[in-house]
Amino acid sequence: MSDVAKASAAGAGALVWSPRRLLEAAGPLLALALLLIVGASMSGSFLGAENLSNVLTRSALIGIIAIGATFVITAGGLDLSVGSLSGLVAGLTIMFMNHGLPWLGGGWGLVAAGIACALFLGGCAGLLNGVMIVKGRVEAFIVTLGAMGIFRSILTWLSDGGSIALDFSLRTASRPIYYGEIAGISVPIIVFALMAIVGEIVLRRTRFGRHVAAIGSSRPVAVYSAIPVDRVRILTYVVQGLTVAAATAIYIPRLGTTTPSTGLMWELEAIAAVIIGGTRLSGGFGRIWGTVAGVLILGFISNILNLSGLVSPYLNGAFQGAIIIIAVLLQRDRSQG
Predict the structure, then answer these.
(1) Does 197 score more than 80 pLDDT?
(2) What fold, for 3-336?
(3) 47: phi then psi, degrees, rounded to nearest 5
(4) Domain definitions of the chain by residue range
(5) What's the CA angle centered on 64, arms 24 and 34, to 5 degrees?
(6) 242: exposed, middle or buried (Cβ count in 10 Å: 0-12, 13-18, 19+)
(7) What is the mean pLDDT of the chain?
(8) Beta strand residue intervals within 30-157, DSSP E
């Protein structure tokens, strides 16, 4: 076996199946099934088509971001700036579309240009984060924590502490991006599903995906195996930036405005979904389908809390934070056992 193959196999070591491993892999799906049963028993409208569609549509935005986070975390990285980046990308994209209205009109041409602008901004921000982390040799936690403050402050300055609103004439043209349906299925859900399928294939079936896992498992071994470690690590942050931009482009038509609080705590939800889905926070193993299950688990927990009224919805963040801590503790116990 070649050195590269050995490094990739090290990153995918968790794929050696056993009864215990199968139970661990099925954990997110079992938890999701249990939540569906609990929700249905607590509210008759829980399994209704309208409620399920609303939950899935809202979860799709975090899910798209979490797909990018899966690549970053699998490679042993971390990005805390995704929420503030989403707010900044939304603000700059709205400003770009408003200024382009006199030249491009209020049709789909300008909407497409706005989507391209968002992807460009997200990709550049991800590239900047990746370069500072990899080439600057600064911890990802420090770089992305600093970027989180910078992005949020710039958005607050641009909006003068208020809001940046999309021109009213553009709202009708952009509305289908969030509220549209194809064959009765919401557009955000379709985009999330397609990106999840592509992400799973890339992470599992491509050289890039195998390199991501190998780097997260053992960076020195990956270097010795001639894997382009720096390039792959930077690309994971670019992927994260692009997924943030994609989610933001879908989110903009929802309200037509952005404020300094846009995207607040989205990084917590994305990381929680990834960890719940079974991706190791220490890196080396990740799975997109698990992340999808994690996103749905968080979405249904929030929905059940709202429908039942047992706990204030303002405590959703507390539940998500507790879930992250518990999931990491369980991962630590397995690695030490």
Answers:
(1) yes
(2) ABC transporter involved in vitamin B12 uptake, BtuC (1.10.3470)
(3) -90, 10
(4) 3-336
(5) 40
(6) buried
(7) 88
(8) none
- The DSSP bridge pattern shows strands 185-186 and 257-258 to be unpaired
Q: Give the three-class secondary structure for 43.
A: coil
H or E stretch at 185: strand 185-186
Q: Distance between CA 229 and CA 220 in Å, rounded?
A: 9
Q: Which residues of 198-213 are buried (b: 16+ CB within 10 A; e: fewer)?
A: ebbebbbeeebbbbbb
Model pTM? 0.90
Residue 67 clears pLDDT 80, i.e. is over it: yes
Scored b (16 or more CB within 10 A) or e, 75-105 reads: bbbbbbbbbbbbbbbbbbbbbbbbebeeebe
Are 293 and 276 in contact by the 8 Å Cβ rule? The answer is: yes
Tokens 């056993």: give the residue. 18
- Give dist(CA 13, CA 148) in Å, integer: 33
| Helix, strand, coil content of the chain in percent (nearest 5) | 80, 0, 20
With a cut of 60, say whether residue 320 has pLDDT above it.
Answer: yes
Rounded Cα gap, residues 26 and 104, in angstroms: 50
Would you place residue 38 in the very low, low, confident or very high pLDDT band (cuts 50, 70, 90)?
confident
Within 8 A by CB and 6+ apart from 253, the residues are 166, 171, 174, 175, 176, 177, 178, 179
Cα–Cα distance for residue pair 322/228, rounded to 1 Å: 36
Coil, helix or strand at residue 40:
helix
- Using DSSP, state whether 310 is helix, strand or coil: coil
Lowest-pLDDT range, 29-33, 188-192, 274-278, 306-310?
Answer: 306-310
For residues 3-13, give the mean pLDDT.
Answer: 46
